[in-house]
Predict the 3D structure of the following.
Amino acid sequence: MDPQLSQRSRLQQPKPESVSQIKRSDPWFDDGTVIIQAGDTQFRAYRGILTVCSPIFQDMFSIPQPTAEAELVDGCPVVHVSDSAEDWQYVLRALCERRYVSLGGSLSLSVIAAFLRLGRKYEIAQLHTEALTRLNYEFPSTLEKCEEMVYSTMIEDDRPLASLVFEVIELAHEHNLRHLLPWAYTVCCHHITFEDIFGTFDLDNGRRIKLANDDQRICIIGWRDLVSVQTKLPFFWLSNDGNPIWDELVAACSSKRRCIAARQKLRDEIFCHGESPKCCAMTFWDTEWGVDMCGVCGAEAKEMHHQALVKLWYRLPTIFGLPGWDKIHEE
Ligand SMILES: [Zn+2]
């Protein structure tokens, strides 16, 4: 259904599909009071539930339908919608069966995307919020939230990470959720190979997903900029030569040779993986990094790392061609 179209005419207009092509799908309540038809799939649900949850359906159902002209199935009016049957199945299961949402736990991205799309279109605030809560958690827009985040606790999906992040980027563009993009692009730079950045992924529901050309370009340029900045900002503490902090700390450091060697070793471990450098610019401090340095150097390195991450976080959106955080948060 398109809310901007005449709701009355949508309810009354018989559709050309022949009856034999129509499939009945779950949820189908025998005592349901309305048929939702998406493509050639029908669901039987309750007008009352849709009315309570969606102001759009409330308005639609408040218009009396002339019974002589209404399209009926098993005595129920048929509402034709232009969305996918898969999205409607998730939404009706959530609204009529309390599935997916009752425990506030993790959801697959397909369910989250359906909640976001239909929640926004039909103003089903509860489902829209369920979707945003999970996306905002996994793709945070403050450094503090980013540090608190534990991966894969709100979005659980066994598909490849690349296809998941690409779909989040697609949703962020479609729904004007630009605050999700800096971290989504960062995940691409940190964890997704160049081959996959340009790759296409087949989803279980038959959809194919790939990054748009602009997003591919943003990821490649962002990767280059993050790799170039990571040794100057977050991991500057790994530089022994020409680093004024270490020069100043010579007297306080209890084992200068050991600490220099520890930093050289870490530098190799963190950046040198295979033939190309590793992008890990927005990686938070790992307590393991401090264990081979003396206490003074370890504490100083941790503090330098944190201060530099704060600076890099501030610049993160602009590295990916977006306006600054202030502007993004105003949206
Ligand atoms: Zn030291």
